[in-house]
């Protein structure tokens, strides 16, 4: 996964557009419509041409990244909402490449719903004719998301945490050094990002989640470092097996 995709995926989370909606309508898995994926691709390439952003991904790579991206919304107790950004390397792989989780406040309004972090409104939105309409804060484009069919729902960690008794735990083969965000390094801001992920039988990593973080600006670098790392896989009954791992990434 190109690093440019990851930053784009996160920044498109941050705004939306309104109408009437119940919490039950919002819950579930959603993906971008083909028309909106094309809008995102065109906007990304135009931003590069104008010098507003950088990156070397082709139009096809950007389009594929968004086709392999879904979101899960679930309302929690106490007017909260849990949002997961789920990214796949390929559309035929049921196991995500990485997952990012967010917890926000949820508020239903007369003509729209609102997602907040404390007093700060993150985004608003509405559903009409089974389509979730969102408005990108940078481009101003109104984007559309459609619900996933039952056959498209991914296999997530909750159902895959069980694993056989291991003869050998996974061990690092090549650990990538996380790129310290320059602005945070200059300010002397560091901390620990606790990650959860899977080591696959070929030693690659997937389903990366942020469990805890001492600064949100460090999370992207920590995820990228694990994506670029390889491991000797765990073994059970003398065979390589897919293994769940928790690992702290330290910035100091």
Structure overview:
This protein has 252 residues and is of the alpha+beta class. It has two domains: 3-155, Beta Barrel (Lipocalin), CATH 2.40.128; 158-251, TolA/TonB C-terminal domain. The chain has helices at 3-11, 23-26, 34-49, 59-67, 182-186, 219-228; strands at residues 28-32, 69-76, 80-87, 98-108, 113-117, 120-128, 131-135, 142-147, 171-174, 191-199, 205-213, 230-232, 234-236, 239-241, 243-251. The chain has an eight-stranded antiparallel barrel with strand order 1-2-3-4-5-6-7-8. A hairpin with a 2-residue loop joins strand 13 (234-236) and strand 14 (239-241). Mean pLDDT is 80; it is low at 1-21.
Task: Please provide a brief summary of the model.
Helices cover 21% and strands 38% of the residues.
CATH level-two architecture of the largest domain: Beta Barrel
| Coarse structural class | alpha+beta
| Oligomeric state as shown | single chain
Order of strands across the biggest sheet? 1-2-3-4-5-6-7-8
Give the averaged pLDDT, no decimals: 80
Order of helices and strands: HHEHHEEEEEEEEHEEHEEEE
Poorly predicted tracts of residues: 1-21
SS element count, helices: 6
Overall number of strands? 15
Write down the overall geometry: globular
- Main β-sheet description: 8 strands, antiparallel, barrel
Helix content: 10-25%
What's the level 1 CATH class of the largest domain?
Mainly Beta
CATH topology of the largest domain: Lipocalin
Strand content: 35-45%
Number of domains: 2
- The end-to-end distance, rounded to whole angstroms, is 26 Å
Give the C-alpha Rg: 19 Å
